[in-house]
Amino acid sequence: MLDRLKDLLGTTVKKEGLPARLPVVPPFASTEPETAPERIHKPDHIRADIDHTGHMRVIAHNDADAKALGAATLQATREKKTVMYGDDIVSAYLADFACLKFITITMNSDTLCSFPFFNMGAPVDARITEIIECKNGYEGQLGVYAKGSVINFFDALYFKNRNTYFPGKDARVLISGIAYVLTKKRANKNGPEPADSDLAFHYDNVDVDDYVFRGKVLDVKEYRVLDKRVQVIKVAFRTGADSVLDLYVCVTANALRETIVPGDHVSGIIWLQGFVV
């Protein structure tokens, strides 16, 4: 995989086309530098910095490749967004490989983190309920009330928007998923699955943005990232009896090698991420 990336970086990176009808939400309305506004509300919780090795493993072969992938994709940057916080200059570098992108965040030219970024789906109305900030100050997780329940996700644009957040703020948010691991069950030819077969809940003793879920596949598209097959599936993500979110999930070959078709029921563990639109 890294050899493939080096081949790409040695030439002009060609963005592979996306299948039709996939809703993609650009992360930056503008790439012009900005000065951050005054902070409205301090975070509700401070946590340790996030180790993104497991997130990079969705495309990398092993932990060593996962760590190297962040540095390598930085060289493939297509967009850069900079926000000034007093004397600190915080920048996000976006490497765009089809729909599975990569973001590297730096502060005063020192790398803070790199992670995969998946921005497919339809934004939903939400209300911020909780703000969790990492010790580095520019990564965070949000809790939002949306579609009838509270959903927690990693905020890919926390570095940019953190000073504007406060509990109770109404916002439009994009929420999507990246699968760590997935299994499937073929569509039931003898009749529909019971209504309570769709389910999503926090993965105990891991992180607040990791979820275990089961759901029906509503749509599937396939493409390639770094010469690997990746499937994008649309599923019914149910967190309560009356709380269902149409969620797009990125499923790499590292998470599932089988082909998924609409009507299949899938289950597994996913990382929820998103951003305020």
Beta-strand residue percentage: over 45%
Runs in which pLDDT lies below 50 for 5 or more consecutive residues are: 8-16
Class by SSE composition? mainly beta
Helix content: 10-25%
The rounded Rg comes to: 18 Å
- What is the first-to-last residue Cα distance? 32 Å
Mean pLDDT: 88
What general form does the structure show? globular
Order of helices and strands: HEEHHEEEEEEEHEEEEEE
Would you count the extended β strands for me?
15
How many domains?
A: 2
Biggest β-sheet strands, sense, barrel = 10 strands, mixed
Count the helices. How many? 4
Write the layout of secondary structure elements.
Blueprint: H1 2-9, E1 34-35, E2 45-47, H2 53-56, H3 63-74, E3 77-85, E4 88-95, E5 100-107, E6 110-118, E7 124-134, E8 140-146, E9 149-155, H4 158-161, E10 170-185, E11 199-202, E12 210-225, E13 228-240, E14 243-252, E15 265-276
Parallel strand pairs: 1-3, 2-7, 9-15, 10-14
Antiparallel strand pairs: 3-4, 4-5, 5-6, 7-8, 7-10, 8-9, 10-15, 11-12, 12-13, 12-15, 13-14
Structure description:
The chain is mainly beta. It has two domains: 2-23 and 49-118, no CATH class; 124-276, no CATH class. The protein is 10% helix and 49% strand. The chain has helices at residues 2-9, 53-56, 63-74, 158-161; strands spanning 34-35, 45-47, 77-85, 88-95, 100-107, 110-118, 124-134, 140-146, 149-155, 170-185, 199-202, 210-225, 228-240, 243-252, 265-276. The strands form two sheets. Strands 2, 7, 8, 9, 10, 11, 12, 13, 14 and 15 form a ten-stranded mixed beta sheet that branches. The longest helix has 12 residues, at 63-74. The relative contact order is 0.19.
